[in-house]
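Go through the following before class.
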Amino acid sequence: MAIDVTPLTPTLGAEIAGVDLSALDEEQFATVFDAFVDHSVIFFRDQAALSVDQHLALARRFGEVHVHPFERLAPSPDGGGSRGLLRMHTTADSRVAAGNRWHSDVSCDERPPQASILQLHDVPPVGGDTLFSGMYAAYESLSDRMKRFLDGLTAHHSGEDSYRKLFRVETVDPGATWPAVDHPVVRRHPDSGRPALYVNREFTEYMNDLPKEEGKALLAFLLDHSERVDFQCRFAWTRNAVAIWDNRCVLHHALWDYWPHERRGHRISVVGERPAAWRLDHDRVPAEHRGSTVRLTA
């Protein structure tokens, strides 16, 4: 069967048909990976439920499996099962739902995940969609003066607020802290060569190199800007569908609008590189992407 790649929006996202993710040959994976780089987030319906080993094997096609801070700093007594696999389960009794705020997965790590691969095994009868927002477009639509102002700036990302305060997860070592690191506000994507805005509401705490109030105002603007509806695509889940997104250039938000119904699945992420800053005086947008700027609308 031929592989069919259907874009969802002009900005990002594509559905891919004609693929069995449990049995990809090298040529098929090359097509999938190219679509991943080109569209930033890709979706697959009509899949069989992946076993843990199959899910891990798929992730390893992209690179080294990422171990979440929950597993590194607050492992469960039974070891939590297969290392690197997160069990996502929201029920009527859940106090919070994972992903219910715009974020890039674990951007507080020194080497944050590149790809995240999620399969949902049980979905609510209605609701539970995931929104994705493209950070290439978010950067491209900024004015030239704002791009120059952001050049070389860094921001502080931390897991303390999310993991300790929101999810109330305590580390095994009482003196341990959740990951925290400084990353460039605009990063260069290693595969596409394009600049992407790299701040998010879940983990980015403050801007460096600016007075507190200036940094606070700038970060508030960038967060609101990154969540603009014209940068987004939306995926309505079906049972056993799979989404693979690029955390280096995409934010996502898992809507929790389905209470009291359940949503359950497995996610595995892949270790990325330490983010490299995009520098206006040294980097150039690849020719195939020039002239694709998203303009501000009234």
